Amino acid sequence: MNNVARKICFVTGSRADFGLLVWPMRAIRETPGLTLQLVATGMHFAPEFGYTFNAIREEGFEVDERVEVAAQQ
């Protein structure tokens, strides 16, 4: 078998999808040979939705990339 670590990237844009992704993300993080990458975007950075970016960190995950989007007026 190949000893090269595989990277798996998750993209989350809201608390709702993050809640669904947290279990497979934990499993990937704990699996030897797999590396978790996480991109946060969308409502995670919106104050009106509670700036849920902090919830990601509280769950013990590091965000590898932030993609902040401007709200349409």
Report the sheet with the most strands, covering strand number, pairing sense and barrel closure.
3 strands, parallel
Helix content: 25-40%
Strand order, main sheet: write it out: 1-2-3
Low-confidence stretches: none
Helix/strand structural class: alpha/beta
What distance lies between the first and last C-alpha atoms, to the nearest angstrom? 52 Å
- Helices, by number, come to 2
Architecture overview:
The protein has a three-stranded parallel sheet with strand order 1-2-3, covered by helices on one side. The model has no long low-confidence stretch (mean pLDDT about 90). The radius of gyration is 14 Å and the shape is elongated. About 30% of the residues lie in helices and about 25% in strands. The chain has helices at about 15-30, 55-60, and strands at about 5-10, 35-40, 65. α2 (about 55-60) links the parallel β2 (about 35-40) and β3 (about 65). It is of the alpha/beta class and about 70 residues long.
Which tags fit this structure?
73 residues; alpha/beta; 3-stranded parallel beta sheet; 2 helices; 3 strands
Indicate the topology.
Elements: E1 6-12, H1 15-30, E2 34-41, H2 53-58, E3 65-67
Parallel strand pairs: 1-2, 2-3
Compose a concise summary of this entry:
By secondary structure, the chain is an alpha/beta fold. α2 (about 55-60) links the parallel β2 (about 35-40) and β3. The N and C termini lie far apart (about 50 Å).
